[in-house]
Design goal:
This protein is of the alpha+beta class and about 290 residues long. It is about 40% helix and about 30% strand. It has a 5-stranded antiparallel sheet with strand order 6-7-8-9-10. It has a 3-stranded antiparallel sheet with strand order 3-4-5, with no helix packed on it. The chain has a two-stranded antiparallel sheet with strand order 1-2. Helix 2 runs antiparallel to helix 3, helix 2 crosses helix 4 (about 40-50) and helix 6 (about 115-130) runs parallel beside helix 7. The protein is globular, with a radius of gyration of 25 Å.
Length: about 290
């Protein structure tokens, strides 16, 4: 404790921000609560809370907006702080970082110049997501800048199971840009997987992959179809690549780290050994 007392308040805030920024998917509130205990000063936690926005938008945190799942993203940020726009409902909302709730829901402003392209992509994406993700959240943003249409797709699917000591999240983001006259669009994507397993330990997986393609977008419907086909193909390749990587690691890397069984070819009964140690200790104390 004396070491912590010797650290300046600025350094404490920096360390607190780092802890919160690195909070595993689905464990944000638990990390914030632990950091609060470590700091022992709510004023310092308030100063460090500016990182809440960074964490939530990086994780594509999902929130219920009038019965519809919305995402917290930088593309949807209205004020760069706590007000966000959900393109699915067309509503603005205030995101409560510590409770994960949406409040102050009110009509937002759409960019009608890109709406036909955005809506076509949103509809085509919904079909793909329903076929491939068990519990997804998504958002499709659109804007018109001069004669250039810019669309951004955010996808999130997670499974949080802290009672069984694991949490995991899949995310992907796709940026699509093309002229209003159509032609070809540049599509840039980033896919990420995060897993945290913490039964009797602390193991985390963080992996990501970027990809890029040029797809034809002669009209909104054709463009949406081609973009979604590229997204689906890329995400499948990424998933299969992760599966193959772990299959190879299990057969080679992990196998070389330890024996599958001890020399006796029998599993060690650790509970029995522990009982024998307790009995031996008791005998030593009575003699």
């Amino acid at each position: 404790m004396s070491g912590l007392m010797d650290i300046s308040n600025d350094e404490k805030v920096r360390i607190a921000r780092d802890f919160i920024r690195a909070a595993p998917a689905g464990e944000f509130r638990e990390v914030v609560n632990d950091v609060r205990v470590l700091l022992g000063d709510d004023a310092l936690l308030t100063t460090a809370s500016d990182v809440f926005y960074e964490h939530a938008t990086d994780q594509f945190c999902r929130v219920d907006v009038e019965g519809s799942p919305a995402l917290v993203t930088k593309e949807g940020s209205v004020d760069g702080s706590k007000i966000f726009y959900d393109p699915g409902t067309g509503k603005n909302f205030t995101y409560k970082y510590l409770t994960g709730e949406a409040t102050n829901i009110e009509p937002g402003t759409r960019d009608n110049g890109a709406e036909s392209w955005r809506k076509a992509l949103e509809d085509a994406l919904a079909v793909y997501l329903k076929d491939n993700f068990p519990a997804f959240g998504s958002a499709v943003y659109g804007k018109l800048d001069g004669d250039t249409v810019s669309l951004t797709v955010a996808i999130e699917n997670h499974k949080y199971n802290p009672d069984n000591f694991y949490c995991g999240k899949w995310q992907s983001k796709w940026s699509v840009e093309f002229p209003t006259s159509g032609g070809f669009a540049k599509v840039v994507g980033e896919m990420k997987v995060q897993v945290h397993y913490f039964e009797d330990g602390n193991v985390q997986l963080h992996t990501k992959k970027t990809t890029e393609e040029s797809v034809q977008v002669s009209n909104p419907e054709e463009g949406a179809k081609n973009v979604v086909e590229f997204i689906g193909r890329s995400e499948k390749e990424y998933q299969l690549g992760i599966n193959e990587n772990y299959r190879e690691m299990s057969a080679t890397t992990f196998k070389s780290l330890r024996r599958a069984l001890p020399i006796t070819k029998n599993l060690v009964d650790w509970h029995k050994l522990h009982s024998l140690n307790i009995g031996r200790d008791l005998m030593n104390r009575t003699t």
